[in-house]
UniProtKB/TrEMBL annotation:
This is Flavin reductase (DIM6/NTAB) family NADH-FMN oxidoreductase RutF. InterPro entries: Flavin_Rdtase-like_dom, NADH-dep_flavin_reductase, Split_barrel_FMN-bd. The keyword RNA-binding does not apply. Pfam families: Flavin_Reduct. It comes from the Bacteria.
Length: 157
């Protein structure tokens, strides 16, 4: 099977959209859009993100040993596009800090983590984060499906 077929198959799984944030050694905020995120454990409270080994974010998280995962709301498409490098010019993004980690204002959930474990698998690195703090806000999630942004449409049962 080729890489394109694998991408098409994985694209059939609709996901939420997150922005991973951390700070480099100079204290500069860095981020990337990601949909490879999941809950791992409630006891201890662990989550997992997957970062391409070629991404700058990999070394930033390795150096800082901390990061946040910000689950985007359906009105935050521009934020997703900005951190995915899809906008021609940067727009201002409102940040707060929680436990000295940057988080995005207005995200549905911001999860602040210390790196708990690092596992390299193929062309990606899996960062398991131990949750230090989280915030939850009301709203609907931004979704990504088959290469496009979508919003939630409830199904009547």
């Amino acid at each position: 099977m080729d890489d394109k077929l694998m991408r098409i198959a994985m694209g059939k799984f609709a996901t939420g959209v997150t922005v991973i944030l951390s700070e480099n050694e100079s204290g500069e905020l860095r981020g990337m859009t990601a949909n490879a995120f999941m809950s791992v454990s409630l006891d201890p409270k662990l989550i997992l993100i997957s970062v391409d080994n070629r991404a700058n974010m990999k070394s930033i998280i390795e150096q800082s040993s901390k990061f946040s995962v910000n689950v985007l709301a359906d009105n935050q498409v521009d934020i997703s596009k900005q951190f995915a490098g899809q906008l021609k010019e940067d727009k201002e993004v409102a940040f707060n800090f929680s436990h000295e980690i940057p988080v995005i204002e207005g995200s549905l959930t911001s999860i602040v983590c210390d790196v708990y474990d690092i596992v390299v698998q193929g062309d990606h690195t899996l960062f398991v984060g131990k949750v230090k703090h989280l915030t939850v806000n009301e709203g609907n999630p931004l979704l990504f499906n088959q290469g496009k942004y979508e919003t939630l449409t409830p199904v009547s049962v």
